[in-house]
Design goal:
- GO terms for molecular function: hydrolase activity; metal ion binding; nuclease activity.
- The chain has 394 residues and is an alpha/beta fold.
- 48% of the residues lie in helices and 8% in strands.
- It is built from 17 helices and five strands.
- A five-stranded mixed β-sheet has the order 3-2-1-4-5, sandwiched between helices.
- The longest helix is centred in the C-terminal third of the chain and has 34 residues, at 360-393.
Length: 394
């Protein structure tokens, strides 16, 4: 039996930050004004970004004519309503109580802001730069071996709410209703590209195929590549680890070039885990299966990724990014419900890869490129150990 709206929201104050639950008489305008005139920490906690970043975003949306003041609600309050909802995962009823507006008003401004952010989102997704990422250039574990690498690609699952008749395709292999989202990440924890909305049951490689073949497609610069994990094939533009070789929990004594390559590959590819974790930390609504139309749920993924990039660009040292910047963080799988488990294929992914038109010669070239990287890493590793042994002996 479904609960009524009244029953669902009896304890709405438990979901509102503690300092707000004690002031039910506060009107939305006063609350927003107090936060924006208060400390940066208060703005970060309530609206998920620094005050200066918040005001700059308001100005951008206003200047472009995407949001406008109304008689009752100014642009800063409209954006505050949206950020408060996505940053605290509150039901509309609870937000009504805090801002003192009707559900229709809250919903209208939420959707207006969502559509405004979607309109400018392409400005926040930038393709890879032509130079070598500093995270590679400045680390002898990765340079010069991965100098042509521009980032990492991976998929994740976000819970969705869909009608009973639509649930079949969205039920993933672990039994959860989800959308399968593919993202290309830079090594400084930004999103180059995001494709949302695929059903949870869709194979990751099919989602990648869609990203490479659609009109607004994932572009890989000539001669460059992204790192992918074992769910994907080693194909032109995407370098996968060697199949069948452990690489997540290697000790410090790899036995051959493939093990050492997979270890270094895993450390670099881990940026996708950290980037998704920072996104989910800032916008918990993504992990809640919000009861919006499916199209809105898909927009929310893209819009929050765009906001993630915007905040990273304006305030790269904000507290959420600092939590996830170190590579040692999240070396294990996401602690959320097991939506993202890797399904190990019975045979190497390369032999099962279908749908993307690469010929045998192109696939063999991609394999040779990976082998060359692995060999160079291994040769230097052996040489360095030999040098250490010589020093010890002498």
């Amino acid at each position: 039996m479904e609960s009524s709206d009244d029953e669902k929201d009896v304890n709405f104050e438990a979901s509102i930050p503690e300092e707000l639950g004690h002031h039910p008489e506060s009107k939305g305008t006063k609350f927003v004004d107090d936060v924006l005139k208060g400390t940066n920490e208060s703005c970060l906690d309530n609206f998920r970004m620094d005050k200066n970043v918040f005001f700059k975003l308001c100005d951008m949306l206003h200047t472009r004519g995407l949001l406008r003041h109304t008689n009752r609600i100014k642009i800063d309050e409209q954006l505050a309503i949206f950020m408060f909802i996505v940053g605290h995962n509150l039901r509309t009823r609870a937000v009504q109580e805090l801002f003192r507006y009707s559900g229709e008003t809250i919903s209208r401004h939420f959707n207006n802001v969502l559509n405004a952010i979607m309109t400018v989102s392409l400005d926040f997704f930038q393709p890879p730069k032509s130079d070598v990422p500093p995270e590679i250039r400045e680390d002898p574990r990765f340079y010069p071996y991965f100098l042509n690498c521009v980032g990492a690609v991976d998929g994740t699952h976000f819970p969705v709410t869909v009608g009973v008749d639509e649930q079949g395709p969205f039920r993933n292999k672990n039994g959860f209703l989800s959308q399968n989202v593919l993202a290309a990440c830079s090594f400084d924890m930004k999103f180059h590209y995001v494709l949302a909305g695929w059903e949870g049951s869709a194979p990751d490689i099919r989602v990648l195929n869609s990203a490479l073949s659609r009109r607004n497609k994932l572009e890989v610069p000539d001669g460059r590549y992204y790192l992918v994990d074992a769910k994907y094939a080693n194909i032109p533009g995407f370098m996968a680890p060697y199949p069948g070789v452990s690489y997540k929990q290697l000790e410090f004594d790899p036995q051959d070039a493939r093990e050492l390559f997979n270890q270094r590959h895993s450390i670099l590819h881990n940026v996708t885990n950290r980037t998704f974790a920072a996104l989910k930390e800032r916008f918990p609504i993504l992990m809640s299966a919000p009861s919006y139309p499916l199209a809105t749920q898909v927009k929310l993924v893209v819009a929050t990724c765009a906001l993630h990039n915007y905040i990273r660009g304006e305030k790269p040292d904000d507290w959420i990014f600092k939590m996830y910047e170190e590579e040692a963080v999240l070396r294990v799988e996401d602690s959320m419900p097991p939506l993202d488990g890797i399904e190990q294929p019975l045979a190497p992914v390369e032999t099962q890869f279908l749908g993307i038109p690469f010929g045998t010669e192109e696939l063999e070239h991609a394999s040779r490129v990976r082998d060359a990287v692995a060999t160079e890493i291994w040769n230097d590793y052996i040489r360095d150990y030999a040098t250490i042994d010589d020093v010890v002996v002498s």
